[in-house]
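Today's session is about reading a structure prediction critically. Students often jump straight to the picture, but the first step is always the sequence itself: look for stretches that repeat, for charged clusters, for runs of hydrophobic residues. Only then move on to the predicted structure, which in these notes is written as discrete structure tokens rather than atom positions. Here is the chain we will use throughout the hour.
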Amino acid sequence: MARYTDAVCRICRREGEKLYLKGERCQSPKCSFERKGFAPGMHGRTRRTKLSEYGNQLREKQKIKRMYGLLESQFHTFYLKASRMPGITASNLMVMLESRLDNVVYRLGMAPSRAAARQLIRHGHFTVNEKPVNIPSYLLSSGDKVGVAQKVTSRRLEIIHHSMQRMSASRLPSYLELDKAKMEGIFRKPERSEIPEIEKLREQMVVELYSK
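Below is the predicted structure for this chain, in token form.
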């Protein structure tokens, strides 16, 4: 499967805000966005370009796509599915992205980043309703139970334990329930207003871009 392999810190700098793509590093002084809060490239410090309507729509699409760690074809597929569903396309899109297994594992605090969650899922360290699932893009339904596999190798993984130790109740979205002792959580399809960071996103611009 194709995936982004370039430096991810450049993405935050290009979008002009922290997207928390590298987990714990994003919270530390090592964060490139904190040290270099300007766009990457030779002219990153000095270039001040006023974006057109299309430019603003494109940047918003790129920001959301990169935040969830998707390639263009994957993101466009989600948009097409959202556009065929009843209701508001923009809200449908965000709810679908939040329903991905890799995102839920990250939101539950079982992985330090979505990228780490994808790798752990592909290696068979997670289950859905107690059945092994190794597809990061698997879409969850309300009531689904996500947990760390019962394998000893999965239950003892330091990256999972370290991430869960740092997870606080205040960071847990309202549409998730977490049982740290059992290393599992319950998913409920969120409302748009329940999605973390939603106030920073303008997903309607994505619809306007793809509708051109």
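Discussion point for the tutorial: The beta strands are 126-128, 131-132, 145-148, 176-179, 184-187.
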